[in-house]
Amino acid sequence: MKKIIYAVIFVVLSACTNGFETINTNPNSPENASEQLLLPSIIFDLSNHLTNESYGFGEVISQYGAYYEFNDLDIYRWQSDDRFWSPMYAILEDVKDLKQLAKEHNNTNYLAVGLVLEAYIFSVITDAYGDVPYSEANRTKEGIINPKYDAQKEIYKNLLLKLSEANKIIKLSKNITGDILYQGDMLRWKKFANSLHLRMLLRTSNVQNNSVAFNQMIANPAKYPIFESNADNATYNFSGSLPDISSVCKPGGGRAYDYFRLIPTTHLIRTMQGDNDPRIHVLLSPKKDSQNLTLGVAPGQALGAIGRPDAYSRKSTACFESATMVKGVLLNYSELNFILAEAKEKGLISVGNAAAYYNKAVKANFDDLKVQMPADFLTNTAVYNSTSEILYEQKWLSLYHVGLEAWFDWKRSKKPSFIKAGSGNLNSNLVPVRLLYPSLEKSVNKTNYKKASSAMGGDTMNAAAWWW
Question: Which end of the chain, N or C, is less packed with Cβ atoms under 10 Å?
Answer without folding.
Answer: N
